[in-house]
Fold this protein.
Amino acid sequence: QSGHYGRAEKKAHRKSLALQSFQKTPAVLSSPTLAKKTTGMTPLAGPRLSADQLKQHYADCIKLSTENKINAKNAFGLHLLEYIDTILQEKSDNFQVVGCTIDAGAKIYAGRVDAVHGDILKMLGSMGNTEAEGENETEEVGDLD
């Protein structure tokens, strides 16, 4: 009986951890109007940038891209993808600029995918460890009978 209770308790704990991670989701994803009021962020777009800020951010993203410094750690801090349509509309006459912008966007997207993939692997690994511990406890309790 105690082994079964331990398993149920661990399952409830994992469920609460998952719920906590969903609650940490930015307000941008949960409520667009609330997000605009409280954080100054547009839905799924990140911070609102002025024209000058956007130009500077674009330059920073292109610089990081050419230096191959876009990775899983900084990809979510780069908002080129959220503004790529605006940028490409302004610079659509220069194919080299369009190509570099798309390349930087692809690197940012790849970095974001890598970050999410790594987080999922960590989560699955920790879930596997807790499940294996629960099975070992159940076997030990069964051996006492």
